[in-house]
Specification:
The complex is a heterodimer. By secondary structure, chain A is of the alpha+beta class. Helix content of chain A is about 45%, strand content about 10%. In chain A, helix 9 (about 185-190) runs antiparallel to helix 10 (about 200-215). Chain B is α/β, with parallel strands linked by helices. Chain B contains 16 helices and 13 strands. The chains are: A alpha+beta, B alpha/beta.
Chain lengths: ~210, ~400
Amino acid sequence: MNQFEIKDCTLLTRMSGLPPALNLRELRDRITRCRQSVLYHHFCETLLTPQFDYPDYRNDFAVWVKHQIDDNVLAERLGILDPYSFASLEDLRLLLLELIDEHLGELPYTPSAHVGHEFYFMEATTVAFDTGKRINRPEELYDAVIKMTPGSLYFHFFEARWRPPIGMDDFSAWLQTLTEPSVNVVKAFQSIDFSFFTLSEIKKEILAALSKAK
Amino acid sequence: MNHPLASYEKVVGAPAIQQLQGLGVRLANLRVTHVNSTREGGGVAEILEWMIPLMCELGIDARWEVLQGTSDFFRVTKAIHNGLQGFPVAIKKHDWDIYQDVNLHNFQRLQPVLEASDLVIIHDPQPAPLLGLCRRRSGPWIWRAHIDISRPFQPVWKEIRPVVQQFDASIFSMAQFAQLLPHRQFVIAPSIDPLSEKNMNLSAKELEAVGSEFSLDPARPVLVQVSRFDKFKDPLGVIKAYRLIRKAMPVQLVLAGGGATDDPEGQEVLDEVFDNAEHDPDIHVHLLPANAHRTVNALQRLADIIIQKSTREGFGLTVTEGLWKGKPVIGGDAGGIRLQVINHHTGFLANTPEGAAHRIRYLLHHREKMLAMGKAGREFVRENFLLTRHLSNYLTLLLVVFRKNSDRTIFV
């Protein structure tokens, strides 16, 4: 039987080199020019960065638009974007720009933040490593998840979706390779609306899905 | 007192400790030297005090060297420090010579250690010229800026920039603090040690004793600002806020702070604070010795609300300490306070004494909000600003900095 190798990861954030954006037009301009890793960071890696997890919006652009330029309409439109539902980060960039352009077209002014509250464009390097721990059977998954770090959960449940098999978490991918695939568990994992949870919340969701599928 | 890594398990859980060990294994025997300018007083020394032993416990050959400076040197570096934070200062050519000479003197003492290090981390501007003096470097040198240099006083930045841009990388506490430099600029937020004397749990008996020692009336609300007596911490603004609150509520104010060997301006500000307090028996101003960690801890725990009304701030670890003790924080809208004080969630940001007074009165009338904010603040710190996360960031840095490529994911 295939073993599941438990990986862990940590994140190191760095400046992207782009100037910060003080208003919506500057934000648009930087989004046009930024590397994909910047988009990835502000949509996906924000879960691993030491910052307050605003319960209402799951990406940094939406949070900034809501709290710093006080534009609830655009914040709502950006907040619903699910980066994992796009075929590529370029597609995500295109829609992001389209939403901002559309909104700028609706406004007679350019929404702006106060000085000191600019949007800073960041990127990060993820360092992944093998913990040496293995899961041999599906029944062991529950206890293993309880002991996982936020880094492990991020790596296996979020970051995994960008690796083949694209769009699938590592747990589901592993379960499907077994001679007796745990169809119910895979189905339960796939029903988790994962992009709306913090890492501590996602642990509870995964555990609940495992309990339910038993 | 230093605590072994295992003792943090009860605070952050076993997985977080195992993660550190997993990273440490991959860094065994790496020779890492940290250099700063003071062994005690201030946030940097407090960080290095726990970080070095924990790095060593993880198998890294970590050391901590401290600049030996004269009072003239610290006067100059304090001016540089203020200048980098945007305050106009007069630094003459002779002063820059003192800055260079003391570094040269220290380099002669530290040369073997610096040359043999696989990685050197220079904290703040005081020891930065060591880089230019060390010709035979074994590995990268990183400049760790603990202060906000985003809007520096230009004549000072003009002198410091050529020094720091030679480093292989720099680290800032927040993106907002950085300057554009021609190397990789990492962002690592600082942290607190939950088991240190400043943050550990204290008995009710001990709190009572400290309250009585400081003549605090347990029946009335206590507001506490703990910080160095520094103009950027705005102690006079805090007194003004207190007076506005006193018109409506019988609060007590504690302004307590230590000095640091590299901060000669403290006494001047302290005198000003005493004058401003005008012998009000409910304003308790205390200059605490650098090692009064337990007293600071007790005062923060005795507080109903923690204040940190800085107008300029580095990260603001006293805010982190207050949140960890389950207290709402009224913070100045500056620096790292913004990252920690989230309006309506962990406290309130205030721009003026009036704003601070308003929020404090609101909270004192809504005790249930205070409790909810305190709880949220403590969990926020547990997840983000304890030393285990900080150490994890540094270990990650040690794995990343030797690689020139900027791949999004690296496997080690």
